[in-house]
Amino acid sequence: MATPRKGKAKVKVTSSGKKVSYGQAGKAKGGGARVKPGTSKGDSYCARSLGIKKRLPKKKQNDPNTPNTLSRKRWKCSGAKSRRK
């Protein structure tokens, strides 16, 4: 199994064996996580990625293994908003 490039946050291997990299890589300047759900940055990301999702074919919109879907899950997107849990 190939390892991801240095700095990639996560790599998911789907059931078909495809490796999918997603989400924002690395740490923020202060050393904290870059993915912070429930912030204005998260809301901005979710709004942009919702536009990407809407432009995909219907089959891909519901596919749980697309990079956009996996990243939206990591940002805890609900529609155009990111929610804190």
Defining traits:
two-stranded antiparallel ribbon; 14% strand; 4 strands; two-stranded antiparallel sheet; alpha+beta; 85 residues; flat
Structure description:
The protein has about 80 residues and is an alpha+beta fold. The protein contains three helices and four strands. The chain has helices spanning about 40-55, 60, 65-75; strands spanning about 10-15, 20, 75-80, 80. A two-stranded antiparallel ribbon has the order 1-2. The protein has a two-stranded antiparallel sheet with strand order 3-4. Strand 3 and strand 4 (about 80) form a beta hairpin. The longest helix is centred in the middle third of the chain and has 16 residues, at about 40-55. It is flat. The N and C termini lie far apart (about 35 Å). The model has no long low-confidence stretch (mean pLDDT about 80).
According to DSSP, the number of beta strands is 4
Strand content range: 5-15%
Counting DSSP H or I runs of 4 or more residues, the number of helices is 3
Q: Going across the biggest sheet, name each strand in turn.
A: 1-2
Radius of gyration: 13 Å
Structural class: alpha+beta
Major β-sheet profile: 2 strands, antiparallel
Average pLDDT reading: 81
Q: Between the first and last Cα atoms, what is the distance in angstroms?
A: 33 Å
